[in-house]
Amino acid sequence: MKVYIKDLEDLYNLAKRFSKCLKGNELILLYGDLSAGKTTFTKALVSSIDKSLEDEVNSPTFTVMNIYETPEFPIYHLDLYRVKEFDISDIVGNGLIIVEWANFQDFSDYDVPKIEIKIEFENTGRIFYVNGNNIENCLKS
Ligand SMILES: Nc1ncnc2c1ncn2[C@@H]1O[C@H](COP(=O)(O)OP(=O)(O)OP(=O)(O)O)[C@@H](O)[C@H]1O
Ligand SMILES: [Mg+2]
């Protein structure tokens, strides 16, 4: 499904709805060019789950993985831009995993939600292409 986002408020609204569709053990794959908004979406999603974590969310480009602890489950925030691949076998199913630059690794074994972010013409406009039956059905309901 295609979701039009006109500004950061829209983005936070989508993230809030998205967060309500999660149990906390999912793998979410993020795609999109440089500065498309992958980290910003992750920040919005993490803060929708636990507002107190908002300031902790930053780009894991150099650390490869950030871990944010919520009362219910850990959130693993990965960025494959530099490393190109990362073994997630130890963490998969044990928390929420969000992967930026998921195009660098072969995730075809996983039937999981995918989000591609495209920059629109205006400064803050984005198109979010959300793929995944469960998540799409949940977002539509
Ligand atoms: N609707 C929007 N959604 C997401 N980001 C937006 C939006 N409007 C403006 N922005 C801005 O665009 C920039 C996106 O940067 P961000 O670091 O999130 O992108 P990224 O895809 O993670 O980049 P990188 O490729 O470096 O990982 C931020 O400055 C953010 O504030
Ligand atoms: Mg980023």
- The shape, in one word, is globular
Total number of domains: 1
The level-1 CATH class: Alpha Beta
User: What is the third-level CATH name, the topology?
Assistant: Rossmann fold
**Which structural class do the helices and strands define?**
alpha/beta
What small molecules does this complex bind? Answer: adenosine-5'-triphosphate, magnesium ion
Q: Name the CATH homologous superfamily.
A: P-loop containing nucleotide triphosphate hydrolases
Query: Gyration radius, to the nearest Å?
Result: 14 Å
| Beta-strand residue fraction | 25-35%
* Order of secondary-structure elements: EHEHEEEEEH
Helix content: 10-25%
Q: How many beta-strand elements?
A: 7
Strands in their spatial order, largest beta sheet:
1-7-6-2-5-4-3
Oligomer: single chain
Q: Which spans of ≥5 residues are poorly predicted at pLDDT below 50? A: none
Q: Tell me about the largest β-sheet.
A: 7 strands, mixed
Average pLDDT metric: 97
How many helices?
A: 3
Beginning-to-end CA distance, first to last residue: 13 Å
Itemize the secondary structure elements and their pairings:
Blueprint: E1 2-5, H1 8-20, E2 27-31, H2 38-49, E3 65-69, E4 74-79, E5 96-100, E6 114-119, E7 126-131, H3 133-140
Parallel strand pairs: 2-5, 2-6, 4-5
Antiparallel strand pairs: 1-7, 3-4, 6-7
Helix pairs in contact: 1-2
What features would you describe in this structure?
With 141 residues, the chain is of the alpha/beta class. It has a single domain, classed as Rossmann fold (3-Layer(aba) Sandwich), CATH 3.40.50. 23% of the residues lie in helices and 26% in strands. It is built from three helices and seven strands. It has helices at residues 8-20, 38-49, 133-140; strands spanning 2-5, 27-31, 65-69, 74-79, 96-100, 114-119, 126-131. It has a seven-stranded mixed sheet with strand order 1-7-6-2-5-4-3. α1 packs across α2. The two termini are 13 Å apart. The model has no long low-confidence stretch (mean pLDDT 97). Bound molecules: adenosine-5'-triphosphate (ATP) and magnesium ion. Magnesium ion binds at residues 38-39, 59, 79, 100.
